[in-house]
Design goal:
Elements: E1 6-12, H1 18-23, H2 29-34, E2 42-45, E3 61-67, H3 70-74, H4 84-90, E4 96-103, H5 105-119, H6 125-139, H7 141-158, E5 163-170, E6 173-178
Amino acid sequence: MVKKRKIIVISGSPCSGKTYFINNALKNPEIKKLISLHSNYTVINANSIRSKAVNFDSHENLVVHYDCMRSYKRGHEISSKNDPFLRFLEGEKGNVYVFIINTDIDTLKHRLEERVIRLADNISPLRQAKLDNLMSLYQDSELYENELNKWFDYCSNVFIHNHTFIINNRDNRYKIEFVKK
């Protein structure tokens, strides 16, 4: 087992820019230096924690794609009791760095609309219902902010001895800010 690995969670709402950040910004040496990612890393989706095919102990550094609205979409509170990936993270306490990509609500709606159009021909009724539910969330900015704040509060309380950052995303130009508790 690797003893001192780093787990970097890139979290945000659907369409916030998590995938873009992971695929593009993490290739930038300045950003890698800023987040102290000096060696190789493996990118995973938080959903793969359920898969026995991924041996998490064999990776020195993990970069995790995490949808911070998944508890909302599943209809439960944010907790390790309800989310196997959060259970895994809480067991790694000292090595977790959480980045929350904060994208303005109008951009989220626009990107979600583009996604719906792109998927229109090949979308299942269940997936369509999930996208409709997400669009309803994005239409209610107060509810959306409340759900995002729940994730921020969870991270700030559970990972208090770690680092939590906000990444403000405007046109895929990222400004990273350290959050002090």
